[in-house]
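Standup notes, protein team

Yesterday: finished cleaning the Acrocarpospora pleiomorpha set.
Today: tRNA-specific 2-thiouridylase MnmA structure.
Blockers: none.

Input for tRNA-specific 2-thiouridylase MnmA:
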Amino acid sequence: MLAAMSGGVDSAVAAARIAEAGHDVTGVHLALSANPQSYRTGARGCCTVEDSRDARRAADVIGIPFYIWDMAERFHRDVVEDFVSEYAAGRTPNPCLRCNEKIKFEAVLDRALALGFDAVATGHHARLADGVLHRSPDQGKDQSYVLGVLTRKQLSHAIFPLGDSTKAQVREEAARRGLTVADKPDSHDICFIADGDTRAFLADRLGSTEGPIVDALTGETVGTHPGAYGYTIGQRKGLHLDRPASDGKPRYVLSIEPVSNTVTVGPRTSLQVTSITCDNPLWNGPADPPATPFSCHVQLRAHGEVYPCQAQLSGDQLNIHLTTPATGVAPGQAAVLYTGDMVIGSATISSAS
């Protein structure tokens, strides 16, 4: 069995558990940058130089073989370039979700199976029951949303040893096992943006092209921006508008039009949506979707609110009608469907109204 070891406490304990259970385990750390110094260093990111060292030390304590796999080219193509192109198209991607889909459970799993491993274990906080993905009991750390893009085949070769544990329990166990990462802070932000400045990262790759910020209610230009890609739906801060709204209330980004390079702003109430259209639906629950509308719940961003809804598959599109309005719903985000704590499918948001 292959244990993907990021260098954090979760993957270290996951590897230790399956080794202790008697599995023949090999640890592997993914090198995701051709120039590791260009990625975030320290405890705030993931996949850093420090992380590879921490992963190796954990493997030594556990007593398992350890290797580093170079995935830099694939990561740059499928995650970094995808991130840039999605923003250029006016969408809001989730790079961690894309990394799980394209790197950890496609590239890595394909290589693992080709080498004779039967499964890949990771430290994700999620639970598998009969091959079906469920939420972690630790709601604050649950990662089923970013795993909701995995296919049934990928899930059939995945193991999540932390499925029934809370983060606090994992840290306590790491300390008992003598793993030095027991108190290591969780990763945050985007690992391939060294200083955490997403707008500057995009500007360096897409350039700066000044465009208007338009008030949706009046049609007036109320400011300018250096590039529409630097904004996200629902954003309130950092707009630098020339004049306040007539009612004195904050304005939010309502839409981003990359062709005209226009950012439209308006009141928070205009952010509310109840109808969502999604592309590329994927069904990974225990059954395929019915032909008629069905009731379920949907999560629209990582660690975001969960909404009751009616969903229906229509050809290659998934239509979702929310029982209560949601705000800040952006094209490019994933909509993950649940029945209770069980994931039944996912799709990519294309529009909302």
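Follow-up from PR in the comments: The two ends are 46 Å apart (CA to CA).
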